Amino acid sequence: MKIELHEIPIRDVCAGFAEDGENGVKGYGGRLDIRPAYQREFVYKDELRNAVIDTIRNGFPLNVMYWVKNPDGTFEVMDGQQRTISFCRYVDGKFSIVIDGMTKAFHNLTAAEQERILDYKLLVYFCEGSDEEKLKWFEIINIAGLTLTAQERRNAVYTGPWLTHAKSIFSRSSGAAYGLAEKYVTGEWNRQAVLETAIRWISKNDITGYMSAHQHDPNANELWAYFRSVIYWVQDTFPKYRTLMKGIDWAALYDEYHGNTYDTQQLEARIQALLMDDDVTAKKGVYAYVLTGDERALSIRAFTPAQKQAAYERQGSVCVKCRKHFDIEDMEGDHIIAWSRGGHTTPDNCQMLCRRCNATKSDV
């Protein structure tokens, strides 16, 4: 790995600055890729962005930056994207900052103030080496500003045509996945959260393994096709949308049940009843429950200590199944009529069983 330190004035970096929407950011006369495939989108808040400009105006040092030097003489920003875009956008007139109580864009500054910014020298390390060396260096250097997410770090390792295509679908608010699934998945699109979800779904949680296997594929069509299939199945199976549907692990349900045929009206009626049931504390779980029948998805409300104490006293400290005496600490509250058979978590439906009897009983 060859690393050389250079001093580069801001005016040179801002030369030819261009932002092609979400497709890329260039600078340094078109020779610098400010936002390469492995980098995050611009995520600095206004106060951080403005702090970069104040640091430069006052002549204070910015943290050192790292550029990868390519064989053709072009460069990629390895570390420093957020700071670079901040000062390039300011010089380009994209925003203003408050100086001595006055709001000023770059063109509002005096000629001397503008020159002071443009002449400011950045400390930039040029890094040359194999892809493996560069990516290793990327992982170990101190990334200034916001910490990379796990998926952003994976993107740094598995660059290629597959990732470029996947990001065009899953990492932009203008991408195809946003319009289709924004109501069903959670996370920041520009921080790669939805891309991470899509890969986790198709890989059954082996995200790294899947990205490694497909890194050099010409496109991410398989990933996109699977993701669409999951969302279309959700929309067809549960046509009435509720906000609590956002963030459910839909792929796990799709993999197990998409081959089954359901009466969607009956499913909706059961969902409505469950959502109105006070004993159901995990409302998101109703969608899994109507397919799986597993009550654990619902987190059925437990009896309170007072309800259990009252039942214990009423039973004379005797387990109603084995008829043996126990301390209350060795007993558990149980529904006399099981919740699945219409019983509720109310004092009159509470009985105390010893741990063994409670573990071996059925809902019959």
Topology:
Blueprint: E1 2-9, H1 10-14, E2 18-19, E3 25-27, E4 32-33, H2 46-57, E5 65-69, E6 75-79, H3 81-91, E7 97-99, E8 102-104, H4 111-119, E9 121-128, H5 131-140, H6 150-157, H7 161-170, H8 176-181, H9 193-203, H10 207-214, H11 221-237, H12 250-257, H13 264-275, H14 286-292, H15 305-314, E10 331-335, E11 350-354, H16 355-360
Helix pairs in contact: 2-3, 9-10, 9-11, 11-12
Report on this structure.
The chain is an alpha+beta fold and 364 residues long. The chain folds into four domains: 1-146, no CATH class; 148-241, no CATH class; 242-297, no CATH class; 305-360, 3-Layer(aba) Sandwich (His-Me finger endonuclease fold). It is 41% helix and 13% strand. The protein has helices at residues 10-14, 46-57, 81-91, 111-119, 131-140, 150-157, 161-170, 176-181, 193-203, 207-214, 221-237, 250-257, 264-275, 286-292, 305-314, 355-360; strands at 2-9, 18-19, 25-27, 32-33, 65-69, 75-79, 97-99, 102-104, 121-128, 331-335, 350-354. The chain has a seven-stranded mixed beta sheet with strand order 1-9-5-6-4-3-2. Strands 7-8 form a two-stranded antiparallel sheet. Helix 9 crosses helix 10 (207-214). The radius of gyration is 29 Å and the shape is elongated. The chain starts with a strand and ends with a helix.
